[in-house]
């Protein structure tokens, strides 16, 4: 816990210092504490550009890291993440509908559509997976329903984008997951949902530990399996929806963070969940900082960096057969 906290502070400091315009640590500290006027170009870089993206990366990273733990715990699938359950594609379709049908053209407007889309997708997946099962939903059915819904929603999203060039032009800026170009207003919109989702998720440790034993064993210990899965599912939707709505679909973070944390702290979800809330921001901030320096004078978006790093990790996980058993 202490090590991850130090790492988070270190990458947050890098997030404020590193970029196309190098700034001295003392100057950044003076700007943040109000010791200097915030009207100079360098001060505006700190307050209007780097501080908002750092705050948003912390919120989105924490949300996606914990959402990944919840997704894998609920489905008992070690390669599950919010995207596999259709939440990202649900958010994407809602954003496209908002652009194409209602003319929404601001990132702050996308937030609400993205959040609503993720929530609707989760309800549909749970409903489809539970049809004919008298309220009992198996992890495999849940994952398959999510994958099928994601494919269907992606097709509809593509159809809208191909027939509406203006919608495509607006959507592409949101579609590449990034914390750049967002202001503190977007972070403020997402923060209440992230805080509420994290608070609910931290109560899910014992629930996920029971689900990990299997439904029948959990019931034999008196656990209400359906309720446990539902409560954790609500936390998952809130966190994944808020993060995706604010920062766009950022791949593989929800997949990588749970595995990295389990390597550090074992499999007890009471420990894994709070550590994931720290490890997620560390990885997302590190990806954002790396994206600023890897291709000067331009930048590579954080979502691209996490995808480039995450794809080999995904392949490695699939090749390790013990992860799939």
Give the low-confidence spans. none
SSE ordering: HHHHHHHHHHHHHH
Helix content: over 70%
> What percent of residues are in strands?
under 5%
Sum up the overall morphology in one term: globular
How is the main sheet built?
none
Q: How many beta strands in the DSSP annotation?
A: 0
> Rounded to an integer, what's the Rg over CA atoms?
20 Å
**Sheet/helix structural class:** mainly alpha
What's the mean pLDDT score? 82
User: With helices defined by DSSP (H or I, 4 residues minimum), what is the helix count?
Assistant: 14
Task: Quote the distance from N terminus to C terminus.
Answer: 29 Å
Please tell me about this protein's structure.
The chain is mainly α and 325 residues long. 76% of the residues lie in helices and 0% in strands. The chain contains 14 helices and no strands. It has helices at 2-17, 25-33, 41-75, 87-102, 107-130, 139-163, 165-175, 184-201, 205-211, 215-220, 225-247, 253-265, 269-293, 302-319. Helix 1 (2-17) runs antiparallel to helix 3 (41-75), helix 8 (184-201) runs antiparallel to helix 11 (225-247) and helix 9 (205-211) crosses helix 13 (269-293). The mean pLDDT is 82.
């Amino acid at each position: 816990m202490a090590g991850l906290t130090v790492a988070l502070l270190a990458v947050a400091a890098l997030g404020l210092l590193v970029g196309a315009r190098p700034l001295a640590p003392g100057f950044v500290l003076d700007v943040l504490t109000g010791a200097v006027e915030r009207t100079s170009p360098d001060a505006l870089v700190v307050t209007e550009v780097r501080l908002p993206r750092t705050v948003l990366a912390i919120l989105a990273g924490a949300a996606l890291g914990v959402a990944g733990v919840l997704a894998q715990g609920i489905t008992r699938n070690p390669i599950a993440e919010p995207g596999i359950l259709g939440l990202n594609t649900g958010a994407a379709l809602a954003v496209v509908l908002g652009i194409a049908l209602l003319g929404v053209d601001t990132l702050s407007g996308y937030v609400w559509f993205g959040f609503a889309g993720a929530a609707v997708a989760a309800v549909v997946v749970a409903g489809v997976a539970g049809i004919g099962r008298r309220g009992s939903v198996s992890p495999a059915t849940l994952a398959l329903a999510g994958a099928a819904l994601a494919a269907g929603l992606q097709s509809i999203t593509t159809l809208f984008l191909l027939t509406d060039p203006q919608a495509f032009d607006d959507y592409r800026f949101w579609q590449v997951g990034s914390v750049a170009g967002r202001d503190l207003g977007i972070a403020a919109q997402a923060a209440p949902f992230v805080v509420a989702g994290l608070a609910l998720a931290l109560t899910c440790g014992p629930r996920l530990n029971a689900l990990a034993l299997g439904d029948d064993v959990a019931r034999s210990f008196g656990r209400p399996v359906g309720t446990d899965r539902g409560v954790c599912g609500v936390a998952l939707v809130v966190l994944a929806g808020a993060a995706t709505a604010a920062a766009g679909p950022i791949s593989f973070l929800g997949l990588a963070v749970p595995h990295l944390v389990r390597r550090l702290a074992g499999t007890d979800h009471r420990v894994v969940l709070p550590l994931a809330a720290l490890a997620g921001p560390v990885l997302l901030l590190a990806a954002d900082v790396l994206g600023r320096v890897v291709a000067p004078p331009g930048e590579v978006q954080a979502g691209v960096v996490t995808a480039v790093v995450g794809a080999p990790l995904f392949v490695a996980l699939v090749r390790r057969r013990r992860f799939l058993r």
